[in-house]
Amino acid sequence: MKANTEDHQFVLQKSMTEIYSDWKAENQNTKLLKSKFLKMRPKNVKLQNQRKLIQCLCEYCENVNLKITAFNNFAVRKNQQHLRIRDKYEAINMILCEKNGEQFNKITCIEGKCVNCGTENLSKRMEPLIIANEEIKWQKWDFVNVPNHKTGKEIKKRQLVTFFTPAQQLFVQLLDELQFLLYHLFVASWQQNQFRQLNNRPPEKTVVLTMDFAENFSCFSQNEIQGAHWAKDSVTIHPVIARYQCKNQECNNSMVDDIIDIISNDLQHDVHAVQKFTEVIIKFLREERGIDVEKMFILSDGCAAQYKSKVAFLDSSMSEVDNNIKSEKAFYGSRHGKNRCDGEGGVIKSKAARIIRNGGLINSAKDLYQQCLCLQKELTNPDGTCNHNRRKLIWVERSNIRHVRPNRVCKTVKGTRSLHSVRGIGAGQIQVRKLTCFCGFCTATEHAEGTSSTCENEAVVGTWRSVNLNGFQHAKQE
């Protein structure tokens, strides 16, 4: 709905030509030119090309949305429109206690330990639909066995599958998924809120690094021949958003937004590449930006191959040995890791596409790096004042990344998937907790296991728990 109108917006399911043909078939005795018919389209009815393509959604959230949509459609068919549920958030609020002015629900409600809230309110509201127990058509993103035409074997792929299920049975499934989803969404929202607080005001002598791999850029050319179309080179783009306090005393500790885009011809997106990129970034910040940094906070998604695994945790424990800097990692909620790095990857690729359309040549990763250097932003503005919105492109050669590091071997940390905060405290030693807190105490004070009694959110995030990374032999370090 537009902000300045009460008219709802609709998008056509067919082209105007198809709609005109259907109309003529139903109104054969009425003469109306196609041009006149097209002009009669209401302004709040949009053409098909204005429908957005929405992708990369969380399957847990989307499967709940699909069930809610099925019940809403069923409610309309039964003339019970008042029973429709607006979205997953309304459904979740119906099974929780009131927030009473707080930003989040009580953790006891989220974890299902509260005796005052539950599924009764939602069950009572949906009772007229459930007692009918008619079959409901609904859809779900589920694994389906499909043939692999190259190997001849069956593989599993997620596809949208249609089911017909009695209303009562489907409602039981919805309740089960809502119980899981409320904690899932709470974690996503909590982590985002903590990251926002940290980025707004990083402590002195620290840097906040938000990082993620962008989708690889595929090199192409203007007026490209057919043979070249099927043999494109790819380029790794790894944006990092660095936030830190400006070292210029005249800036009164203003925040610097330093975008660092790693460009590489190495296409192996793994934890070893991330470690190399991190080393390069810390060296750049110290030597070229001239900042005094003693600790880094790394914010990323929970991809096991890149950021959240035993090797990544081991790298964090060895951070002071490798880079003379303390390291704390925090992870977005599962399936909710979108951040500014996605947009920054688009900036690089959009610039490259414009260069190519204007006749520029980008045939390799090094070409992309050199052609996009014009996007860099200097340390000072034209008037001589300090520029707090910076951008730097850094080239990392494939040969400089060691994808086999025998000295970084350990056993998996139990419960890795449920951990959202990890920090290194020594070679082969880390501390972990289930959620992240960046309150003043947690960002400014080192405290031992189980003693974080002054943390503002201890009841929610838990206390730090020390973990020895078994299997790691520090004596073998090179």
From TrEMBL:
<protein>
    <submittedName>
        <fullName>Uncharacterized protein</fullName>
    </submittedName>
</protein>
